[in-house]
Each structure stands twice: as structure tokens, then as C-alpha cells.
Amino acid sequence: MSKDLGRLLTAMLTPFTADGAVDYQASERLAALLVADGSDGVIVSGTTGESPTLSDDEKVELVKAIRKAIPGKTVIAGTGSNDTHHSVKLSERAMNAGADALLAVVPYYNKPPQEGMYQHFKAISEVGPTIMYNIQGRTAINMTAATTLRCADLPGIVGVKEASGDLDQIGLVCAGKPVGFNVWSGDDSWTLPVMAAGGYGVICVVSHIAGRSMRKMIEAHLKGENDVARKIHIGLLPVIKALMTTAANPVPLKSVLNAMGFPAGPFRLPLVPLTKEQLEAVMLTVREAGELITFKAGVKVA
Question: Residue 182: beta bridge partners?
């Protein structure tokens, strides 16, 4: 049986130094703060980590650094691309660097047929435990429930991050999945609905600043404490919306962490920071969430 990767996994941003280099020290500290605040582990070099602008060498070094920073916790490497050969080679390097599993997105731009998706994920899953990532909003094509379930029968496929925005499709996957295959919500605001439909957890962004709240919501749902779970869900919705709609992820999140005192650093082009007015509006929403915001940038981690 494969390792339990966890119900709450944070898609971690990548801190940069003032000159735009990867800040590995800050990355280690951020990972430690995230697991201290409730996350079971982190995704390194996903979309939130500005993966399109990271080199393969930087992605591998990040896995090594984060593995060292959070021993015993889950480290998943984002290794997907729209080139299967490239994805396989990067996956091999990531696993050798200490990753517990891989996160691979549906190939973007070249819009493969469903059979192409199956062969793509099959090849990657032969390298290491693989979570597929279905997000039509970024890839321009949807992986169907039928293809997801076909892939789920492959021994190396351990789950899917579902951000299709189609609860019917997600429900069909949850209903037909084999034992040991997990469905993580790929949209923070869908965490509770997806879990109600049979999902396992979430690969999360808002957990950067509300990890313990997301953890409490998940645990309340599992205990049948519906009112508690619903209250947290509703309370965090304005924050989630602000982080996801003010600008493309991770621009609002990284801007917020910098404003909260964590040195997340600048962006790599073509991403740019929020305007002053945008940041003020997002920070007002964050402040209004009150005690649901649990991240403390100044906390020391052993």
C-alpha cells in the first residue's frame, strides 16, 4: 500500500530573493510554517509555485530543500508539462531528490485526445506515485470521468486533483474510483462539496494563511459536525475569492504573504504584483476573516 499523502496539502508558493533567484532558505522556512499550521505536506513547483518560470534544476533543488525542512511530512513534486518525455525525465529527478509523489497536470496547449492523456499519465506513473491534475481553465481541455477512472486502475496512479468545476463529473469519479485512489479538490472553495461527494481532501492555496481553519473544517466534516464545517467554509469564501479572482494565482497570495511579514519576494515575469488599491482590498478581506486566518509569519519553527 502506498503512503497516505494527507488530506490537506498546500500548493506552496516559491519565494524569490530581491534579484529574482529562488530563495531556498525562505522556502524551507515556509514549508515548516505550513505544516506547523495544519498541512500534511506541500506541493513543490506547482502553478502556485510559479512553475512555468522555474528551471528543472531549480525544481529539483526545491524538492531537496523542502524534503530536508519537513522530514516525515509529504513532499510532492510538480513535474507535469505538455511534453511526456520531459515530464518523465523531470519526474525521475524529483523522485531521486526525495519526493514522495508527483503531481502532473493534463497536458496544456497541445490539447491531446483522451487516449493521449491516458498514455501520458501511464508513462509518468511508472516513475513514481502520481496525482493527476485536471484543470480545464488552464489546459483548455477536460479529462473526462471515464479517462480518470481508466487511469485510476494503473498501479502508479494514486489520485486526482480535480479542478474541472463540474461537481457531476467529480461525483462520478468518486463513485467509480477503486480503493486507494483519492480525489482531492483543486479549488479551495469546493473542498467541502467535493468531500461531501466522496472526495478525500484538498490541494490548497488558502491554507498558506488559514491552514488550521482548513484542517478544522475537514476534521469537522469527517466527524459529521456539519454546522462547524459549514461555518468555516462560509467564513473563508470571501478570502478564497479574493485570492483567486483579484488576479491570477499566485499574485494575490504572494502579495498577501509579503504584506503579512513573510519574505515571499517578487514575481518572475510575466507575473507582476497587485496594485496598491488591489492589495488594500484583499488585505481588508483577510482582516475581516478574523481568527480564521491562522498563519503567523513571525513564528519560530524547530
Answer: 159
Q: pLDDT tens, 77-100?
A: 999 999 999 999 999 999 999 999
Residue 1 predicted with pLDDT over 50: no
Which superfamily, per CATH, for 8-292? Aldolase class I (3.20.20.70)
- Contacts within 8 Å (CB) and 24+ apart, 14-21: 14/45, 14/49, 14/50, 14/54, 14/62, 15/263, 15/264, 15/265, 16/264, 16/265, 16/266, 16/267, 16/268, 17/265, 18/265, 18/266, 20/266, 20/268
Q: Where are the domains of the chain?
A: 8-292
Whether 133 is a known active-site residue: answer yes
pLDDT (tens digit, 9 = 90+) per residue, 179-189?
A: 999 999 999 99
Question: Which residues neighbour 40 within 8 Å (Cβ) at sequence distance 6 or greater?
Answer: 5, 6, 7, 8, 9, 73, 74
What CA–CA distance (Å, rounded) separates 302 from 29? 10
What pLDDT shows up at residue 177? 98
Residue among 24, 59, 73, 161 flagged as catalytic: 161
- Quick check: helix, strand or coil at residue 92? helix
pTM: 0.96
161 is catalytic: yes
DSSP state, 107? P
DSSP secondary structure letters along 196-208 = HTT--EEEESTHH
Determine the distance from the C-alpha atom of residue 61 to the mean position of all C-alpha atoms in its chain, rounded to a whole number. 19
Please provide the DSSP assignment of 135-157 as one string: -HHHHSSPPPHHHHHHHHTSTTE
- Catalytic pick among 24, 59, 73, 133: 133
pLDDT digits (tens, 9 = 90+) for 25-62: 999 999 999 999 999 999 999 999 999 999 999 999 99
Q: Hey, which bits of 135-279 come out as E strands? A: 157-162, 182-185, 201-204
The vertex-163 CA angle with 265 and 213, nearest 5°, equals 60
Chain-centroid distance of CA 49 in Å reads 9
